[in-house]
Amino acid sequence: MLLSRAFAIFLKEVIQMRRDRLTLAMMVGIPIIQLILFGFAINNDPRRLPTALLLEDQGRFSRSIVSAMETSSYFEIVSAITSNAEADALLDRGEVAFVVTIPAGFSRALMRGERPQILIEADATDPASASNALGALGEIVERGIARDAAGAAMKPRAASRADLVVHRRYNPEGITRYNIVPGLLGVILTLTSVLSTALSLTREVERGTMENLLAMPTRAWEIMFGKITPNIALGFVQVAIILLAAHFVFGVPMLGPFWVLLAGVLAFIAANVSLGYLFSTLARSQMQAMQLTFFFFLPSILLSGFMFPFRGMPVWAQWIGEALPLTHLLRIVRGVLLKGNGMANVAGEMWPILAFMLVVGVITLARFRRTLD
User: Fold this and answer.
1) Among 323, 330, 328, CA closest to 299
2) Whole-angstrom Cα distance, residue 205 to residue 211?
3) Which domains does the chain have, with CATH numbers?
4) 223 phi and psi, to 5 degrees?
5) How far apart are CA 26 and CA 283, in angstroms?
6) What is the pLDDT of residues 20-56, one digit of tens each?
7) Dihedrals phi, psi of 80, to nearest 5 degrees
8) Is residue 280 within 8 Å of 199, Cβ to Cβ?
9) Which contiguous run of DSSP H or E holds residue 101?
10) Residue in 42, 45, 22 with CA at minimum distance from that of residue 33
11) Which terminus of the chain has fewer CB atoms gathered within 10 Å of its CB, N or C?
12) Phi and psi at residue 203, in whole multiples of 5°?
């Protein structure tokens, strides 16, 4: 009898679990997503990093160095520029990770047995992303020079034929907290704004006050606006706390215009609370709303470039990351705080956040029902 009663409870739980399809999908889906992301998408040694070249010397040694860089797996030459202003613009917008400058007279200096310099400017807002490539560049340059050195009448050389001068732009000391603390702004806002909004409607249903809300002479967008506005205000309180701590406790520089940062944060919070409201229309309980939130939060922190180098991920993972608002907010926050970017430099990161908010908002309004069925 004892076993039969226990087996009856077991069957009851199995049936209840089968009916709760959302929870069952989360229990199966989250381990699969973790296996895929950690097994295939995460890579702490990024390759094929976009690189711009400023070639002031057109000699054969310069061409051999460029060829060796293209042959290596660390660098991908995406642009040939002609001025330092172009180099600054590309680095400010984050379009390249490195700018390599080979000065005039480089090949002639090599032939005389001197040690000419090569300037490497690296975007060090994410120190981990550039470290391995910079470590390999010395050997790559030497291999490129040695390719033509055998047949050239060069004077005896020192241990190294060329000096690499590395300028770590925006974070010259490679301080990790300059990268992590600004990123925490987006991570914290993602979790709190989505979760608090996702619980809003489900809380009304569980407390039995949803009927009163539906009986009011309000439209769907009016209910949505009233629900998400307090969460937006709460988000700005969190922003103020995080920025004050970042500047006065962790010493993170704030170089760019503050209004640009606020504009990006406002768009991001609005996108997240819209998503949270959509989750509240999908979930039937607060527990399901929390599960949906973490289902979105996990890929956000893994594929946005917060924990792991974005350019180290495969192309398919970068496509997913580009669809996440957190990816673009991280670039906006780090660009404004560390690079001093203005609106012109971050506009390309603003429109994906606004597009995400628009799409999610339309879906949410379409799903909102004025009945409890």
Assistant:
1) 323
2) 8
3) 49-169 (3.40.1710.10), 176-367 (no CATH)
4) -65, -45
5) 12
6) 666 666 677 777 777 777 777 777 778 888 999 999 8
7) -115, 115
8) yes
9) strand 98-102
10) 42
11) C
12) -65, -40
